[in-house]
């Protein structure tokens, strides 16, 4: 390969996250509803029949599909399907920072406004919904704990090819886990992380 061909390969590339073509991509929506004179955030409790994370609290959302125009459209589509509302009832949708999970996922979160009176949850996916006053979340920070993610090489890992062999000092990666409690519901995991990010954004000067 000569210099001209090399330059042609590189000059029009748009940088992305290395390996992102192998990541699963999801979009979620943090729904805001008006209840009387106060703003609330709406949460789902996943149906007990769901294969993954049954009974856990989450925001509406799901995997981005080929037919979705972009991440925002996926978040709106999934929210409409799960809450049984028309997509045109989801308004003022704005993006937050996306999150690259250590488990091979990229999560694209959005915030949008919906009319709670229109909601008729899809019982196959959603056991129930509940809301939390935004003022409560602003004045009640989450409990924070640390989760350590360790590198565990496979049994056939070629230790003989790296300095130190089996004594190589693989890094651990600590990540905070946030827990919000409201009545009998616990919000944590990726949902807790997205909620913490949203609260941080709106509290920033």
UniProtKB/TrEMBL annotation:
Keywords: Hydrolase, Magnesium, Manganese, Metal-binding. GO terms for molecular function: coenzyme A diphosphatase activity; metal ion binding. The keyword Magnesium applies. Its cofactor is Mn(2+); Mg(2+). SUPFAM superfamilies: Nudix. InterPro entries: CoAse (IPR045121), NUDIX_hydrolase-like_dom_sf (IPR015797), NUDIX_hydrolase_dom (IPR000086). Coiled coil: none annotated. This is Coenzyme A pyrophosphatase. It comes from Priestia filamentosa. The lineage of its organism: Bacteria, Bacillati, Bacillota, Bacilli, Bacillales.
